[in-house]
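#structure-requests
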Amino acid sequence: MSDIIHLLPDSVANQIAAGEVIQRPASVIKELVENAIDAEAQEIHVLVTDAGKTCIQVIDDGKGMSETDARLSFERHATSKIREATDLFALRTMGFRGEALASIAAVAEVELKTRPANEELGTRLLIAGSKVESQEAVSCPKGSNFSVKNLFFNVPARRKFLKANSTELSNILNEFERIALVHPEVAFYLYSNDTELFNLPVMPLRQRIMAVFGKKLNQQLLSVEVNTTMVKVTGFVAKPETARKKGAHQYFFVNGRYMRHPYFHKAVMDAYEQLVPVGEQVSYFIYFEVDPANIDVNIHPTKTEIKFENEQAIWQILSAAVKETLGRFNAVPTIDFDTEDMPDIPAFEQTRPIEPPKVHYNTDFNPFKTSSASSYGGGGSYSRPKVEWEGLYSGVEKASKLNGPMEEEPPIEEAWTISDTSQEVADEGREPYLEEAGRATASLYGNEPVMEMGAQHLQFKGRFILTSVKSGLMLIDQHRAHIRVLFDRYISQIRQKQGVSQGVLFPEIVQLPASEAAVLESILDDLAAVGFDLSPLGGGSYAINGIPSGIEGLNPVDLIRNMVHTAMEKGNDVKEEIQTILALTLARAAAIVYGQVLSNDEMSSLVDNLFACPSPNYTPDGRTVLTTIKEEDIEKLFSK
């Protein structure tokens, strides 16, 4: 039997490794910027073209590399950070595995210019697909200048599955923000297609956070600080009143490295229990300092997941620190013991005899005695008002004469809202609708009309609309039904660009971080198609000059933020999918809420519009809108 196992060529092995480390242009920027920080750079410039697909350039003023180091840095597992296995448990640098440059060079065309401070000439190195094309001495500034062009040029499948430029740029900005937030002692500059997106000079941490996410955040942050022998926790948490469902800025950093940690996230949210509504999130920026021997950062290729040795103890420390911060800054409800309004509580004295309380009352009060005096007490009497008892029963007498002997009827709860439309009006108004509704729902109910002639609508608990159909009793969820109706309307307006915009008297300003502003730019056309009128003001700010007609009363700033965050979460690039996201988000925000009492006309209009939809049975995200209780099932309930 011939041997079938063989060693992979270095070029193939490097491409496999690149698939783990380099997933998109943002991964390249992360690795190169972290290397620049390890090289003790004070200024780092990042320039991207076409969201990094065409070119990524990272320039730093760090230590630089010699000719030999420049050549060795592109070999796999060549690193200056560790020398033996025990060094893995004492890491204080960002990179250490020696895979980043080798992985980048395996899937791109890389040019490196670097010079250490003690040498007059630097080194220029050209590598493409892991092959060194040239190496020569050049004159260049101190530090390193990496230029990465045509990412995934030799892996067409990987390049094909890159997202749209707006999505990839948003990912780049996210990675850039994470690094900038943890290194305020380093100046960062980011340019996209020759446009400056970030200009972050050296500044304190709180000012760095505001420079990244806006000055408005300054009024929302409370400082956290606790120092124990196990861990030191510092940073900021937001006030409970700033909680929102989407778009909260939540960051954990450990020893200068960004990490994701769902367990610690629960510790922070535990401190906000009963302070924020269920399902809403608050922003936080938490920085841990831990002995490197007590953590393991080598469990994930991108080093964003970190294992702690004492996770449960740190959980308790973190939760207690956040609770103490909320209490110290009066962010939790408290009882105000105002000395002026406090009741007079006498001090207890053992020598004083205990006396029962005395009751004071007017012995001259007589409710049946009439007098001109209107005072109560002081020897006067109470004047009873004269009540017209006969008038209370006048309506009953009239009803008995008109309707004859009254029959006993079951009481009707206040939760029901009953339609009072007359039979004649109902018959006339529903005939054209029945034909259309019967066609629209033929797939579910056959060819018979859905609604019975002259059927009345009832509203139950402010949530469901009940109506009679030939097969039994239909229950319609009013909120979901309105979502179905509004979604079809908005998606039609977007695709036909027929959205009606209503101008606002006082334009509102929405301020977005650079990563969210990049996504907003990609959906501006769709927002305009549905009726939003936005004008850019620069620096991630936009003026809302007009809103879609029919959403009056909603907060347009929160609505735009929600649509941007939903687009970021979905990560879709197909235009139709983005349009669907926008229409669904807008429909959910504008739909009638549970508990809203509807008149008969409103219920009739909603039901008519629902059955005019192509798919009235389900919401766009697949939730049930209506259901029917068959007549035979109702009869079974009363069979005994």
